[in-house]
Write a structure and sequence with these properties.
Blueprint lengths: L1 E4 L6 E6 L4 E6 L6 H4 L3 H4 L26 E4 L4 E4 L10 E2 L5 E2 L13 E7 L2 E7 L4 E2 L5 E2 L2 E3 L5 E4 L18 E8 L5 E7 L4 E7 L2 E7 L4 E6 L9 E8 L2 E7 L8 E5 L15 E4 L4 H4 L10 E8 L2 E2 L12 E2 L16 E5 L4 E5 L3 E2 L5 E2 L2 E4 L7 E5 L7 E9 L5 E8 L7 E9 L2 E5 L7 E6 L6 E8 L2 E6 L2 E7 L10 E4 L17 E8 L2 E4 L9 E9 L2 E2 L17 E5 L2 E5 L4 E2 L5 E2 L12 E5 L2 E5 L2 E4 L3 E4 L10 E8 L4 E8 L2 E8 L2 E7 L7 E8 L6 E7 L9 E5 L2 E5 L17 E7 L1 E9 L2 E2 L15 E3 L5 E2 L17 E4 L4 E4 L4 E2 L5 E2 L11 E6 L2 E6 L3 E2 L5 E2 L2 H4 L7 E5 L2 E5 L4 E2 ...
Parallel strand pairs: 42-43
Antiparallel strand pairs: 1-83, 2-3, 4-5, 6-7, 8-9, 10-11, 12-23, 12-25, 13-22, 14-19, 14-23, 15-16, 15-22, 16-17, 17-18, 19-20, 20-21, 23-24, 26-27, 28-29, 30-41, 30-44, 31-40, 31-43, 32-37, 32-41, 33-34, 33-40, 34-35, 35-36, 37-38, 38-39, 41-42, 45-46, 47-48, 49-50, 51-62, 51-65, 52-61, 52-64, ...
Length: 1055
């Protein structure tokens, strides 16, 4: 034990705050001022009366006490070190300052995948095994999992007193209950039953969800969780009674970490009171007379683990041996691989499986398929009829699989037979325009389903009638299609499928159905024309059939040889496909494909036309025109001109055509499109000019056309990039029929610098590379052999790198533009952008940076743009109910009448020493500006020095040392292995006794030797006293001290 004392005299005063690593040396404690203790007065309350600024919370983490990367969490007069995660292969860290490596898990004996948690208590290293689900005890070596594979139950008797133990996981609850984990695939089973007929609690699975019920003579509690729990996954469930209420908590998917909890109780009903019957617990079922009280009515099949009854673990090893259960959880995955052959849904019944087959499949493994029947094969008249042996009432359902391409035809009809005629048709389902129609009594309006079904693909359809309401089901979607007059299906009625007997009129319902029908049912009764029967199915055998084919058979659609130009015909269902040669396409291979042979000699883009092809190019021009002639090949007059252009020429002639007095000019005037047309049909020429600029170096689409080409004379319109740019309004002229005259000449790019794309007159392309092989009759051909530069190109304006400061040069066609990086501007990005030019800072000065700026706010303002007033009241709250009024860079406290000061922190009028204030424990009172205050002697605190300071409040002792409070001091009792005033020093490796004992022995030996030498010297001296030796005296010298001379004996004096 090392005593630490805060020693003080009239001259000095020491305080050591070890956890802050700060030592204060204060001269004369009576002169202690607030400015010196404000940093720790909050923690130790060692404040003089003037120290009213001790409102700061000291950050004990400021000294960074946590070691080895631990992070510090500041507390009130304390701190906590959170140690980092250990790297793989390293020991974890612990201790108050993360300074100790925890080796409690080295060589641990945790089994079955349990996690080891190292611990350090009173300097002793140990560990705890965190068991996974299904295991228990200190080493997690005992299994808690068992399975129930046959109907039955396990009977357990629990001592009734044990039910009051506090729940382990649910520490907030105290009551009776069961907690377990289960796994099953069955949707209706009883998990446990506790009690008897009159007083019980049970948990069951109902329709895949959980249901718990508690019953007594006084109350009945019931809770339900609807989420699916019978999917074969483990679920953790806890059912308990607490304060008369019933609680059900489930942990698993769709629940948070604490689980999903539902409860019942506290609704004014008397609290539930369990009886002595709760000593009987049945797991996995119950006797039949108790099982009848549940909704499920069946025992549990599945696996259970981690069973706890009233917070007490129940291990399967302790269950009675005569109970029918197995240790572990052995489960066959019946549905993996799929036993239903992909034709049904496999249902896992835990000990077996069941296949719910998709239609039209059936059988134990859905390996069998109901027969399909083909109606109206090769345009024959087909039908099948059935005598209904049972009544189906006014609620019935007709369902079947259909495959057809014929959009019309009768599918199903119900008739009430008469002896003298065909009977009355009172319900019909038929096809009309590829959709399903439903009608009932004559003169009633039919209902229409919103789905097109005659696609040639097999589809499952269903029509359900509920009294008057009709629903149509297709592809899993249900449609309510309307109401019909109510009808009832009676025994003895006739049902017709696919048509009516020959000679009966079916035109009202679209005639006879053509296609395939399969698995046709009226409710659950099969309408089978082939005589199929099954002991497990209801089957109506056909009473009459006509021209049906077994199976789904297509007509021979290729017998008429529909494929042209050498195409090969292939039969599909009631249709055909043609495999055409490379040069042809279309349903019957009737359309020629030209571009597949790459006919464009100059590499242009080939486009197929109905009667030929075109080779599209872009071309670059520098006032080198190309002349064309149609050669009289045009089929009709020209009413529109289309051009694609890219240029920076503000004035140019794009296209010029003439014949006699007829003239067409399309050009650019002042950067806009300009058109002039002169024909024989008009007296004066038509001139119009657009407004939109097209000389910006970008591609533009220009269209010049008659507003109404059907008329002989019409206004003309200019369209640029799909937007109307100009119209001639009242000026009219006719089409450009003169272009087809012999001798008419047409020139493109007569005075133009730039690029042209597709140019069309009347939809006919003007090629830049002539191709005389194109087969279409209407063409423009190049006159002569002009030198045309194919492709669009411009001057390499960016090669010289004109843009500065990292800017990107953008080629704008014979012009460049610079895309500047952030912070630069100018044509060449040569200037630094002044981000402060817009004066963004509202209350402050702006400092410009490259690609940014900084606002330096005036006092009292904050925010990125200095546009927010700092709320000083948030940082300096007024005390004693004072009202804070915020100002610019200041605040004002409006104090109540009894208080004053900047924050209303002082009494008013000010208190006076001796009159109002008496300092206890020798504290010294001084009158100040704002009233009297006490300067406390060391060891005391409080506004009147009335409290003794507890030096142990700060927990100064480290490494588990115990702190003993003393007056104005504390004492640390250190654990083994530590020493020092604060137990912060490790003891040395060599024990102090091993050093002290040898040193003591050495001192004893030295003392013994010294004592022996002194004794021998003294004895020799005594022996020489009383003997006279003249020679010795002579040798000693003639000078002798008188007091050392021997007196002569009397005998010698007589001689």
């Amino acid at each position: 034990m090392w005593v630490h004392d805060s020693l003080f005299t009239a001259e000095f005063y020491y305080i050591l705050i070890e956890q802050k690593h700060i030592i204060f040396k204060l001269l004369n404690p009576l002169l202690l001022s607030c400015c010196l203790v404000v940093t720790f007065c909050y923690r130790y309350h060692i404040c003089c009366g003037l120290c009213e600024l001790c409102e700061l919370n000291i950050d004990e983490c400021e000294s960074q006490p946590c070691q080895n990367g631990g992070w510090c969490e500041d507390g009130r007069g304390s701190y906590t070190c959170h140690c980092p995660e250990a790297e793989p292969g390293d020991l974890p860290l612990g201790g108050d300052h993360c300074e100790v490596k925890l080796y409690g898990c080295v060589g641990h004996k945790c089994q079955n995948g349990a996690s080891c948690l190292p611990t350090l208590e009173e300097g002793k290293h140990s560990h705890t095994c965190l068991c996974p689900h299904g295991f228990y005890n200190e080493q997690c070596s005992t299994r808690t999992t068992f399975s129930l594979s046959t109907p039955g139950f396990i009977h357990i008797q629990i001592a009734f007193k044990e039910k009051v133990r506090r729940e382990v996981e649910h520490r907030g609850h105290q009551g009776l209950g069961l907690q377990l984990r289960f796994r099953t695939t069955l949707p209706n089973m009883l998990i446990f039953y506790r009690g008897d007929l009159d007083n019980y609690l049970f948990l069951e699975i109902v329709n895949g969800g959980l249901h718990a019920k508690a019953f007594s003579e006084e109350s009945e509690l019931d809770v339900t969780f609807a989420g699916l729990v019978s999917d074969g996954a483990w679920r953790d469930v806890h059912v308990f009674l607490d304060n008369g209420s019933l609680f059900l908590t489930l942990k698993g998917p769709d629940c948070d970490r604490d689980g999903c909890t539902v409860n019942d109780g506290d609704d004014g009903e008397p609290p539930f009171q369990p009886s002595q019957a709760f000593t009987d617990v049945y797991i996995g079922g119950a006797p039949n007379y108790l099982l009848e009280l549940s909704l499920s009515g069946a025992g549990f099949l599945g696996c259970i683990e981690d069973l706890m009854i009233d917070s007490k673990p129940i291990l399967p090893q302790s269950l009675p041996e005569d109970q029918d259960f197995e240790l572990g959880c052995s489960k066959t995955e019946w549905c993996k691989p799929d036993p239903c052959n992909g034709h049904g849904h496999c249902v896992d019944l835990w000990t077996s499986y069941q296949c719910d087959c998709f239609r039209p499949f059936h059988g134990e493994s859905c390996s069998e398929e109901y027969l399909s029947w083909t109606y109206s094969h090769e345009d024959t008249v087909s039908f099948s009829s059935y005598d209904l042996e049972e009544s189906h009432g006014s609620n019935f359902r007709v369902s079947f699989l259909l495959k057809s391409l014929k959009p019309d035809g009768l599918l199903f009809q119900l008739r009430r037979p008469h002896a003298e005629d065909e009977g009355e048709a009172y319900f019909s389902i038929y096809l009309r325009m590829g959709r399903v129609f439903v009608s009932s009594l004559p003169d009633s309006s039919p209902l229409t389903a919103p789905v097109f079904v005659t696609t040639g693909e097999k589809q499952l359809l269903s029509v359900e009638v509920k009294h008057t309401h009709v629903m149509f089901d297709h592809a899993g979607l249900n449609y309510g299609i309307g109401e019909i007059p109510e009808v009832a299906v009676r025994s003895g009625d006739k049902a017709y499928v696919g048509g009516l007997p020959e000679g009966w009129d079916a035109a009202e319902w679209g005639g006879h159905f053509k296609g395939c029908l399969q698995d046709f049912r009226l409710d659950d009764a099969h309408l089978d024309p082939g005589g199929w029967s099954s002991p497990d199915e209801i089957v109506y055998i056909s009473s009459e059939t006509g021209n049906l084919k077994e199976g789904c058979i297509s007509d021979d659609a290729c017998k008429t040889k529909p494929c042209q130009n050498g195409g090969e015909c292939t039969v599909t269902f009631n249709d055909f496909t043609c495999s055409c040669s490379e040069e042809y396409t279309g349903k019957n291979c009737q359309t020629r494909v030209w571009c597949v042979s790459n006919p464009c000699a100059h590499g242009g883009l080939c486009v197929d036309l109905p009667n030929g092809y075109e080779c599209l190019h872009n071309a670059t021009f520098e006032s080198n025109p190309v002349q064309y002639s149609p050669g009289g090949s045009l089929a009709g007059p020209i009413a529109d001109i289309y051009m694609e252009l890219r240029t920076r020429s503000e004035n140019a002639v794009l296209l010029r055509a003439s014949w006699g007095s007829n003239l067409l000019v399309v050009g650019i005037l002042d950067s806009s499109v300009w058109v002039e047309i002169q024909t024989d049909s008009s007296i004066k020429s038509l001139t119009l000019k657009g407004l939109r600029h097209v000389t910006d170096g970008r591609w533009h689409r220009v269209n010049v056309s008659m507003a109404d080409w059907k008329r002989k004379s019409s206004p003309w319109v200019i369209t640029v990039d799909g937007i109307t740019d100009a119209t001639s309004k009242q000026e009219r002229t006719g089409s450009l029929s003169f272009l087809n005259k012999k001798g008419a000449l047409l020139a493109v790019a007569d005075s133009f610098t730039g690029c042209l794309g597709a140019v069309r007159l009347g939809g006919i392309y003007l090629p830049f590379a002539d191709d005389h092989k194109a087969p279409q009759p209407s063409q423009f051909h190049i006159v002569g052999k002009p030198n045309v530069h194919l492709g669009c190109s411009s001057a390499p304006v960016c090669d010289s790198g004109p843009c500065l400061n990292g800017a990107t040069c953008e080629d704008l066609f014979n012009k460049f533009g610079c895309v500047c990086d952030t912070g630069w501007e100018g044509e060449l990005c040569e200037m630094d952008t002044d981000d402060c030019a817009s004066q963004p800072c509202v209350y402050g000065s702006c400092k410009d940076y490259l690609a940014g700026y900084e606002c330096r706010c005036d006092p009292g303002y904050t925010g990125t743009l200095c546009d927010g007033d700092t709320d000083e009241c948030a940082l300096h709250p007024c005390e004693h109910g004072g009202t804070c009024q915020d100002g610019v860079n200041m605040y004002t406290c409006v104090c109540p009448t009894d208080y004053s000061g900047p924050r209303c922190q002082w009494d008013y009028p000010p208190l006076q020493c001796d009159t109002d204030v008496q300092c206890a424990n020798d504290g010294i009172c001084r009158d100040g500006l704002w009233g009297a205050n006490c300067t406390c002697m060391p060891g005391f605190t409080g506004s009147r020095c009335e409290l003794e300071l507890d030096e142990c409040n700060s927990n100064p002792c480290r490494n588990g040392g115990s702190c003993l409070d003393r007056f104005n001091m504390f004492v640390c009792e250190c654990p083994a292995g530590y020493s020092g005033p604060l137990c912060d020093a490790h003891k040395q490796g060599i024990p102090w006794l091993m050093v002290v004992i040898p040193l003591l022995c050495l001192c004893v030996v030295v003392l013994l030797i010294g004592a022996t030498f002194m004794l021998l010297t003294a004895r020799k001296k005594r022996q020489s006293e009383g003997a006279y030796s003249p020679s010795a005296q002579e040798l000693a010298g003639a000078r002798l001290e008188m007091d050392s001379m021997l007196k002569v004996p009397p005998e010698e004096r007589l001689i």
